[in-house]
Every structure is written in structure tokens, then in C-alpha cells.
Recover the amino acids of this structure.
């Protein structure tokens, strides 16, 4: 195993351990405050001074979250879409009239928010007065997907949303009245979506242990396979040149430097280990990736030379959440059983 | 053994059991479900239903879904999963601790296979939950008709681990005996219960462990004591369904694993669409461990189970339930796997 050598550099001693009190399903940063998303009901905010508090966000399971540094939006099985800020203020952004589960959420570049309940995807543009705490009077727009929505991703520019579903994905311009949404076809169940930072590629995770991608200019297909398990976590490197992925016993990085993306290329493989990576998070400033394993290990890997740093020693339970603060100095991790830590990399 | 490798396997006991209720329209699925939910058993159930609103019990863990059967991209047409279950089970397991078991009620026209296959194919589902049993509710009065005109009804009978012949008060003893024989002609292995208004002890339908490899051993037809397969059937008439049959094979000679495993793989690859379920206990040559396997269509799952006990008869038994099965080809193939 790569991480077990005595020469391995470690930042484990820089970890502030936290007790969260519930299984963690995701983590985000709001400024320098870490936010740990629990499987049900609550978000735990951990301030840099070590003080943490539990924020009641949902009446049941928390199914999906997204964050933009200033707020977290979360969807729950209570049919609510809730926004939470670093002060722990929560606000219901939308309620599904039929109390359907809100399965997926996404945040856009201009403060837009998207969510889905069953087959229906919704978007709401940024509220006209962002200082206001009042509910915007702008009605969300709805799009009916051909099957239950598998994943949502905004494009980095423009008001445009990618919606993954069965047998493909749909590109939707909510503001283009009368323009038919663009359908991208590929057989199978597409469960997650990611748009490259340059907006040229859409990648989906599939029910099978593989990814599918489209080069949007000509709809060329890209098939990225070889995984041991369903890919549950995707993250673009700071440079936008690499897509880091979970689902294998090593960190699989697909190259997106050239206009062809990963077509005809093999992925770069880092941090080989006997255990599977379940979650990945790219550093926001440099091409370094945090990888969380299903045996509790967390490693940092530098893309350039594959150098590794130990960030969390293995334990008994899978790592389920990783997040970097916006300045890249803090790394938060969380596990399925509710262990958590914040590493100060200075 | 290191602690790490122990923790790799999540213990079976920690997985939440999932019971699948099937049955043709009007057979009494919802009656059974309401009975399960209302009896004072002290257990909490999360329920996944299609016909929302028919449940008479107030329960915030009732989830309505649209059945979505998704084909897998592996070139196998019978390899399907229930996309809605992948999603809903993941969401429900975030509330682990709020319930003891999950019940999935399917629509009357549903095929149980994609439901079962979801547990084998989706690693995330299989890690946290386990399929307990497929329970089929049959209408004593109308099942005979449905077996003629509704392939879904026949699938549900063939696939079942437990069958309730319900509404027995609406038929005569002769009709009841006839319907029982019809069911046995299709699926001699399911546990059979005759009920009125789906009244059955709950432990007859829940906690069955029917898909647990360790308990796969129920390969004897339910109503037979011994080996008299071609005889009396406990006084029942003997029907052979023309389309759906079961094939049971047995040998007391050890099998060659290098022949058997490729053979069974190849068989389910070719005949998978027609094979609804298969199960087996195998004695391999020079192997002191019992090998057990089960399958749904093309998906096989097998493992060494435990050492053969001293004095235990080391024979191999396999069972296939399916549609228009090539009996002679399967029998000959099985016999060719006997170790030389």
C-alpha cells in the first residue's frame, strides 16, 4: 500500500477532530466555516475557533446539497429546498406542492439555483435583491424530463442547465423562450452530471461503473470505463485540465487539456491502494486532489508528480465527505459514522 | 486476520431487510400490507408503494414511486434494475435507525426480476440493504384465468419465495386444491399459505432470508417429504404448466468446478432471459466446503458456504425455474460436469 511507508509525509497532526453526532453525507465550506451535512435533518457548522453548532434544516433525510461559498442549498425528503448561510440562518427557498422528495440540487454561477423532484427539474434565477431575506417573487421555471432526473449541473457561464436522465441528458436554456431543450442521447441510466469549467464537455456518471461524456460542439461521445464501482464523486481540478473521479482502488484522472478531451487517451492513475476511493475533492487553487477511501483513509495527491500526503489514517468506516475552503487552506473530512475533522494546512 | 479486513465486510445482520410484495391486480397486496403495518409487532417499516393513498396507516415513512425499469448497458436485455429503487433506497438509508425493515409493494403488472436484480447489481443498495423474499399474493378465484391471459401473473408465481393463495373463502375445496396444483406446476419451491383477507402470521412473510446464500438450502419442494417427485404430490393433481417449469437436478457424484462454473455461466448467458431463478448446493471434487449459488436471469451469485459436516451426504442439487427451458440440454450439461 502506498500510504503505509514510513517516509510518507503526513498532515494528520494538523487535524482538529470533531464529533458530529450523525452519519455525514457531504461537507462544504462557507467562508472558513465548515458545514457537515448529516443524513437526516441537520447541518453542523464548525467555526474556525472550534465551536460547532447543529442547524435544523429538514424534517427528514437530506438527499442532496450544493454550495457556492456563501450558502448551502439542500433538498430533503420533506419536499423542501432550504438555503443555509454561515451564520446558521436557514430559509425555505421552495416547497414541493406534492411533498415529493427533492433529489438533486445545483447552484449556478450567478446565484441561480436548480433542483429536481421526480421527473421535474426547476430553476430559479438569482433574486433581484440579494440583500433581501424575502422570498423572491420570481416563479421557478419547470422542465419535465423524460424520466426521473439523475443529476443536475449548471454551465459555468450563461443561464444553462444540464439534466441527466435515462438514455441521455438534456441541455436546457430556461430563458430561451420557445427554444426546444437539446437532447443528448446515450443508452442507459445517467445518474450524475458535471460540466467542464470551460463549458465544452458534459460528463455523466452512469448506473454501470463508467462515465459517459459528450463534446458539446459536435456531440462526440466519450466512454470512460474500467471502474470497480459506480462513480459517485466527480471533481474538476483547479486548472480545469483534469476530472478526478471515485469508484476505483486508485485515483482516476481524465485529461481534458486538449480539444478532444480524454478521447483516445488513458487516464492518469494516482494513489494506488487496496481500497476503493468513494469521494474526491480537488484543491481550489492548485492541482492537488483529496481522495477519501472506503476504509477511512484520506490522501492528498499532487497531479504533477503523484506525490502523496497522508491526511487521515484508515479506520473502520468509509469517508463520505471532503471539502476545501475557498482559499484552499482548510480541508474538512467526514465519515459514514459521524467522525469528522478539519485540517489546517496553513 | 487483521481488523481492517474484518471491517471490509459489513455484517449481514446490519443490512436492512427488504420484502417485495407482488401479486396481480386485486389479489390482496394492499390488504396484506395494511395487515403487516397494523399488527402490534413493535417493528417499524418503511414502505415503498405505487398506488399512493391506499394505505390505511398513518406513516411518514411511506414513499410513493413510479416504477422505472432501466436496462443496463452490458448487452444483456434481461439485465434490468428498478431505477426508482436505487434512488429511494439510498434516500431511506439516510434515515437508518428510524425503521427495522423495508417493504416494496409493486404494481399488479410488475415483473419481480428487476426488483431482485437491483440488489445484485447496485453495490450501494446491496451494501446497506438485503432482499429478504419475494412474496406473491394470488387470488384463489381468478388466478387460473390470469395464468392463461397474463404473463405477469405467471412471472410473479414463478419468482416467488412465498405465495399466499388469498380469498380462499370465495372458492370450493376442489377449486382450491386445483389452484394449488396449478401453482405447484409452476413453482414447487415457494412456501405456500392459504388465506382469507391475507390473514397470515407475519413471520410467514417477513424475515424469510430467502436470498441469503447461507439459507439457500430449501431446495426441496415445499410439499414433499422425500424423493417421490413423480408420485402423489400429497394428493394433489399433477399439472405441468406448458410454458413455465422447474427443473431439479441432483447427483451424488462430485462435480468438477472447472467444468461446472463455465457451464452454468454459459447457460445463464444463453438462456438467461428464460431462466427466472436458479439455486444450487454443490459438492466439488476434492473440496471440503459446500458451494452455494443463486441467480436471477443472467446474474449469478455464489460462494463457498461452510465445510461439509461429518456424515452429511455430499450431493449436488440445482433447481431452475423458467420459461420453455431446454430440459434435456440442461440435464445433459449438468451430467457432463461430473468429475471424472
Amino acid at each position: 500500500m502506498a500510504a503505509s511507508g514510513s517516509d510518507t509525509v503526513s498532515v494528520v497532526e494538523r487535524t482538529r477532530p470533531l464529533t458530529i453526532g450523525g452519519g455525514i453525507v457531504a461537507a462544504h465550506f462557507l467562508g472558513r466555516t465548515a458545514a457537515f451535512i448529516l443524513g437526516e435533518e441537520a447541518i453542523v457548522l464548525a467555526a474556525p475557533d472550534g465551536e460547532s453548532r447543529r442547524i435544523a434544516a429538514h424534517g427528514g433525510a437530506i438527499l442532496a446539497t450544493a454550495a457556492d461559498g456563501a450558502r448551502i442549498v439542500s433538498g430533503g425528503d420533506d419536499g423542501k429546498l432550504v438555503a443555509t448561510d454561515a451564520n446558521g440562518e436557514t430559509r425555505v427557498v421552495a416547497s414541493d406542492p406534492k411533498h415529493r422528495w427533492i433529489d438533486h440540487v445545483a447552484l449556478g454561477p450567478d446565484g441561480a439555483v436548480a433542483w429536481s423532484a421526480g421527473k421535474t427539474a426547476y430553476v430559479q434565477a438569482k433574486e433581484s435583491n440579494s440583500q433581501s431575506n424575502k422570498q423572491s417573487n420570481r416563479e421557478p421555471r419547470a422542465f419535465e424530463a423524460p424520466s426521473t432526473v439523475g443529476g443536475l449541473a449548471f454551465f459555468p457561464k450563461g443561464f444553462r442547465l444540464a439534466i441527466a436522465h435515462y438514455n441521455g441528458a438534456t441541455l436546457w436554456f430556461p430563458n430561451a423562450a420557445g427554444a426546444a431543450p437539446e437532447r443528448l442521447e446515450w443508452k442507459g441510466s445517467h445518474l450524475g452530471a458535471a460540466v467542464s469549467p470551460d463549458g465544452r464537455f458534459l460528463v455523466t456518471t452512469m448506473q454501470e461503473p463508467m462515465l459517459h461524456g459528450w463534446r458539446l460542439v459536435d456531440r462526440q461521445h466519450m466512454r470512460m470505463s474500467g471502474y470497480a464501482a459506480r462513480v459517485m464523486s466527480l471533481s474538476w481540478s483547479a486548472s480545469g485540465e483534469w476530472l478526478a473521479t471515485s469508484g476505483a482502488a486508485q485515483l482516476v484522472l481524465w485529461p481534458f487539456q486538449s480539444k478532444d478531451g480524454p478521447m483516445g487517451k488513458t487516464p492518469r492513475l494516482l494513489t494506488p491502494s487496496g481500497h476503493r476511493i468513494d469521494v474526491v475533492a480537488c484543491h481550489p487553487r492548485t492541482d492537488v486532489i483529496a481522495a477519501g477511501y472506503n476504509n477511512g483513509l484520506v490522501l492528498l495527491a499532487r497531479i504533477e508528480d503523484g506525490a502523496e500526503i497522508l491526511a487521515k489514517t484508515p479506520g473502520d468506516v468509509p469517508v463520505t465527505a471532503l471539502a476545501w475552503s475557498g482559499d484552499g487552506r482548510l480541508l474538512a473530512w467526514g465519515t459514514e459514522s459521524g467522525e469528522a475533522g478539519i485540517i489546517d494546512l496553513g | 486476520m487483521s481488523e481492517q479486513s474484518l471491517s471490509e465486510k459489513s455484517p449481514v445482520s446490519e443490512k436492512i431487510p427488504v420484502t417485495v410484495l407482488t401479486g396481480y391486480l386485486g389479489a390482496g397486496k394492499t390488504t396484506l400490507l395494511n395487515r403487516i403495518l397494523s399488527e402490534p409487532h413493535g417493528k417499524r417499516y418503511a414502505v415503498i408503494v405505487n398506488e399512493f393513498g391506499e394505505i390505511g396507516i398513518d406513516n411518514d415513512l411511506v414513499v410513493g414511486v413510479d416504477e422505472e425499469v432501466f436496462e443496463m448497458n452490458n448487452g444483456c436485455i434481461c439485465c434490468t434494475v428498478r431505477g426508482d429503487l436505487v434512488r429511494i433506497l439510498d434516500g431511506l438509508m439516510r434515515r437508518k435507525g428510524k425503521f427495522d425493515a423495508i417493504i416494496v409493494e409493486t404494481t399488479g403488472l410488475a415483473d419481480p426480476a428487476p426488483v431482485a436484480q437491483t440488489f445484485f447489481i447496485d453495490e450501494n443498495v446491496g451494501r446497506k440493504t438485503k432482499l429478504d423474499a419475494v412474496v406473491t399474493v394470488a387470488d384463489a378465484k381468478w388466478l387460473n384465468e390470469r395464468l392463461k391471459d397474463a404473463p405477469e401473473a405467471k412471472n410473479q408465481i414463478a419468482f416467488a419465495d412465498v405465495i399466499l393463495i388469498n380469498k380462499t373463502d370465495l372458492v370450493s375445496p376442489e377449486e382450491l386444491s386445483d389452484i394449488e396444483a396449478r401453482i405447484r406446476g409452476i413453482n414447487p419451491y415457494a412456501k405456500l399459505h392459504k388465506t382469507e383477507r391475507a390473514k397470515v402470521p407475519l413471520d410467514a412473510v417477513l424475515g424469510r432470508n430467502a436470498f441469503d446464500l447461507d439459507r439457500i438450502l430449501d431446495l426441496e419442494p415445499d410439499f414433499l417429504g422425500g424423493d417421490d417427485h413423480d408420485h402423489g404430490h400429497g394428493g394433489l393433481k399433477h399439472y405441468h404448466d406448458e410454458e413455465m417449469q422447474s427443473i431439479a437436478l441432483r447427483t451424488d457424484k462430485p462435480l468438477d468446478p472447472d467444468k461446472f462454473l463455465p457451464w452454468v455461466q454459459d447457460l445463464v448467458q444463453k438462456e438467461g432471459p428464460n431462466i427466472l431463478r436458479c439455486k444450487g448446493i454443490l459438492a466439488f471434487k476434492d473440496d471440503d466446503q459446500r458451494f452455494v449459488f443463486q441467480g436471477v436471469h443472467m446474474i449469478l451469485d455464489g460462494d463457498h458456504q461452510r465445510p461439509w459436516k461429518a456424515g452429511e451426504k455430499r450431493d449436488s442439487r440445482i433447481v431452475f425455474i423458467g420459461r420453455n427451458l431446454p430440459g434435456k440440454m440442461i440435464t445433459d450439461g449438468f451430467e457432463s460436469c461430473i468429475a471424472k
